């Protein structure tokens, strides 16, 4: 019996050593990947951010009129989400780079923007909208087709206002024209457990929304003024883009695809093929040649992009921010 116990203990030790070796190997690979991914590429003869370049995958159609599919999916927020090995790419930078690449390509006559997003931060939503508008300004014959798959709300709907035609799937949700800002106030909890805030600030408004202090009505009034200003910009863009005569429905509510069509918030209801057919009609051609962009990756970049576990980011502890976001 003692001999069997010794064997079991030996195997346990071996298993632990193997696990430690594997962990060490993964850590070393991660460090090497970070090192190589941070190095600059030698020999570039053009500014990579100003003139982004992507490889292309043939997606749809056999025509000669070139169209680029760009995916706007998830919460519109700048920043790279950290994983066990490396980071997720910045979705906003990726979308803006793709739009810019399409803008610089004189053969691209349309962008097919596929949307499935609840919106997100105010400025990135506005940046995407502005980039799409610039795409059209560079060539008056260009078209932006927006296709909403499941959700096109708030900041995503804001970006969609650059579209010449907005089509949504029959089960999609759209709308939520509004601005939101949220935070937590833990004054009552702090009093109960003995927590207090020690803040050294340069003025009475520098410490707005301190979670361990009573909410100051003056602070709320100042922030409400900012929210109203951002809402005014959002509503005016929707009103102008959609040719609305009233802002009655631009109060943050969402709509089914059918309701949105009735209220002129979108132009059509259908599926991907319907969107492509409509885009072909808008371009006045018999067929289109649709491509998707992608970036070729080396071994280390592929490793960094692997779907390893996401490290918790505790966003609830972040500072409050202004959002074009649908948060049911």
UniProtKB/TrEMBL annotation:
Transmembrane spans? 12-36
Which SUPFAM superfamilies does the UniProt entry name for this protein? ClpP/crotonase
Gene3D superfamilies on file: 2-enoyl-CoA Hydratase, Chain A, domain 1 (3.90.226.10)
Q: CDD domains, alphabetically? A: S49_Sppa_N_C
Q: Which GO terms describe its molecular function?
A: serine-type peptidase activity
Top-level taxon of the source organism = Bacteria
UniProtKB keywords: Hydrolase, Membrane, Protease, Serine protease, Transmembrane, Transmembrane helix
| A Pfam family annotated for this UniProt entry | Peptidase_S49
* InterPro entries xrefs: ClpP/crotonase-like_dom_sf (IPR029045), Pept_S49_SppA (IPR004635), Peptidase_S49 (IPR002142), S49_SppA_C (IPR047272)
From the UniProt record, give one GO term of the biological process aspect: proteolysis
Residue stretches making up the Peptidase S49 domain: 139-285
Q: Which family does it belong to?
A: Belongs to the peptidase S49 family.
Q: Which PANTHER family match?
A: PEPTIDASE S49, PROTEASE SOHB-RELATED
* Protein name, as recorded: Signal peptide peptidase SppA
Organism lineage string: Bacteria, Pseudomonadati, Kiritimatiellota, Kiritimatiellia, Kiritimatiellales
């Amino acid at each position: 019996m003692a001999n069997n116990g010794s064997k079991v203990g030996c195997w346990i030790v071996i298993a632990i050593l193997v696990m430690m070796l594997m962990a060490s190997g993964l850590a070393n690979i991660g460090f090497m990947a970070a090192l190589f991914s941070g190095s600059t590429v030698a020999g570039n003869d053009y500014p990579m951010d100003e003139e982004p370049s992507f490889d292309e995958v043939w997606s749809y159609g056999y025509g000669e009129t070139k169209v680029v599919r760009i995916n706007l999916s998830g919460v519109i927020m700048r920043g790279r989400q950290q994983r066990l090995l490396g980071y997720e790419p910045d979705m906003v930078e990726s979308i803006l780079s793709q739009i810019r690449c399409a803008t610089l390509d004189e053969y691209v006559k349309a962008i097919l923007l596929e949307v499935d997003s609840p919106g997100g931060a105010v400025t990135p939503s506005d940046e995407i909208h502005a980039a799409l508008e610039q795409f059209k300004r560079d060539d008056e014959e260009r078209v932006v087709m927006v296709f909403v798959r499941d959700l096109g709300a708030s900041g995503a709907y804001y970006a969609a206002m650059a579209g010449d035609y907005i089509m949504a799937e029959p089960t999609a949700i759209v709308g939520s024209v509004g601005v939101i800002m949220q935070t937590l106030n833990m004054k009552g909890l702090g009093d109960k457990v003995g927590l207090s805030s020690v803040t050294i600030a340069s003025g009475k408004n520098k410490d707005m929304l301190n979670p361990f202090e009573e909410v100051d009505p003056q602070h709320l009034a100042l922030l409400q003024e900012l929210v109203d200003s951002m809402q005014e910009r959002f509503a005016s863009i929707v009103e102008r883009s959609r040719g609305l005569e009233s802002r009655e429905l631009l109060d943050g509510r969402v709509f089914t695809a059918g309701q949105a069509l009735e209220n002129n918030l979108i132009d059509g209801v259908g599926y991907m093929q319907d969107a492509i057919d409509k885009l072909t009609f808008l371009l006045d051609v018999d067929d289109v040649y649709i491509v998707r962009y992608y970036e070729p990756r080396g071994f280390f970049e592929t490793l960094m992009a692997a779907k390893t576990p996401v490290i918790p980011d505790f966003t609830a502890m972040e500072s409050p921010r202004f959002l074009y976001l649908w948060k049911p």
